Amino acid sequence: MYKTYWGLIDAPFENVPDPSFLYESPQHKEALSRMLYGISRRKGCVMLTGEIGSGKTTLSRTLIQRLPRENFEIALIENPRLTPLLFVQEIIYQFSGENLNQKKNQQIHHLNRILYKNMSEDKDSVIIIDEAQLVKSKETFEELRLLLNFQLNDRFLLTLLLIGQPELKELVSEIPQFEQRVAIKYHLQNLSFDEMVRYIEFRLKRAGVNRNIFTVEAMEKIFNYSNGTPRKINNICDMGLLVGWSDKSKYVDSTIIGNLLSENEKW
Question: Comparing 146 with 204, which gets the higher pLDDT?
Fold first, then answer.
């Protein structure tokens, strides 16, 4: 709606996990580096945590994009609120497209065959569980721990990547035998003010505009509102561009952002 007015070719602040809009702050770069290292070195289990809206899902999609399909088979579980049996069934479906209705031990044997088949084809098997804090059942965590028993003398047959909100750390810590299997951990913090400024500038440039649309005072209000959370930054910046277009403003200034925040408080 406002793209032509601001000279944009894309909407810069959509809350979708588009890897092309990933701003690699130092900590996002570190998180991506640790995940890639854990997978490439077959570390068994890697855990990434972060606050709501901190960019975890975008990082996971970027990770998938950077893993060559000829070298990796990936099972992405986006709704982990499943029973242990359905969890294994979903992993098999993600890897092979097969929707098996078998007893658990039969499914485990079938998954084992899939993992060996991938290995024989020089492919590493990766299971990515997004929103892993939704796995509330200790039985399901136990099933995931047992999957890490699929290994040879010198390597795991799969890498398990857990991505979730901070409470995931608490859930895992309550199961010591599982926590000991987590080889790499990283917690994603919110952006600092300077990082937020670069984040906004990066997304505008990626969307086709290489100039400042938001004033410094507007960015200060955005930071105070968002506390550096990318999702909140996107929401208020998107509305700022919309109102700025509607008002035919040259910039998105502190008045526009202040009015938006006042409206938000009324809801």
Answer: 204
Helix (H, G, I), strand (E, B) or coil at 138: helix
Tell which residue, 189, 214, 188, has the closest CA to residue 201. 214
Residue 88 falls within a domain, yes or no? Answer: yes
The answer to whether 245 and 6 have CB atoms below 8 angstroms apart is yes
Last residue of a domain, which of 188, 205, 234?
188
Place of tokens 């070719």: 9
Count of domains in the chain?
2
| Residue 237 sits in the same domain as residue 111 | no
Nearest residue to 206 via CA among 236, 234, 245: 234
Measured CA to CA, the distance from residue 141 to residue 27 in angstroms comes to 28
Q: Say yes or no to pLDDT of 31 above 60.
A: yes
d(CA 247, CA 15): 24
At 105 the pLDDT is 87
Residue 16 lies in a domain: no
Phi and psi at residue 17, to the nearest 5°: -80, 65
Q: 91 lies in which domain range?
A: 26-188
Q: Are 205 and 91 found together in one domain?
A: no
Tokens standing for residue 186: 């990283």
Does 244 map to a domain? yes
List strand residue ranges (DSSP E) for the chain, in order.
Answer: 45-50, 72-77, 124-129, 158-164, 182-188
118 and 90 within one domain: yes
Structure tokens at 250: 């040259």
Burial 223-249 (b: 16+ CB within 10 A, else e): bebbebbbbbbbbbbbbbbbbbbeeeb
Query: Which amino acid makes up residue 51?
Result: E
C-alpha–C-alpha distance, residues 165 and 169, integer Å: 8
Same domain? For 69 and 163 the reply is: yes
pLDDT at 266: 52
Predicted local confidence at residue 101, as pLDDT? 81
